Amino acid sequence: MNTRLYTEQSSSKSTATTWLPSYESLVDNLTFMCDNMPKVSESHINVRSSGACNLMPASLTPTEIEGSYFTDRFTKGDVVLTFVDRSTGYASFAAATTHVESGASG
User: Fold this and answer.
1) 52 near 35, Cβ under 8 Å?
2) Low-confidence residues of the chain, pLDDT below 70?
């Protein structure tokens, strides 16, 4: 399994992924290491970093998934992922955003 995350400042890809048992639900957590690369326009304030993320789906068909992350830059936080649609193949954050804003999601 691969994960990709696009933000306005950077993109991340998973380097190692595993499913771990959850103590809060019957659905396993998706845990992965990631490599984060800032956009060139952000490289003066952001550097390449590594981190880990734990996503905790509450069901096998979630519309929203909560999780948490931390990085080797000593940053950490919470994440909330909201289901848009099952389309794939976006090369960038901008392409995916354009798809969503056009109302083409379904």
Assistant:
1) no
2) 104-106
State phi, psi for 91 to the nearest 5 degrees. Answer: -85, -15
- What tokens appear for 86 in the block? 């099952």
Taking the C-alpha atoms of residue 106 and residue 100, their distance in angstroms, rounded to an integer, is: 9
What is the residue extent of each domain of the chain? Answer: 4-101
Which backbone phi and psi does 16 adopt, to 5 degrees?
Answer: -155, 135
At 106 the pLDDT is 53
- Per-residue DSSP letters for 26-66? SSPEEEEEEEEEE-GGGTTT---EEEEEEEE-SSSS-SEEE
Phi, psi of 25 (to 5 degrees): -150, 180
**Whole-number Å distance between alpha carbons of 14 and 30:** 11
CA-based torsion, 8, 9, 15, 18: positive or negative = negative
Q: Which amino acid is at 43?
A: S
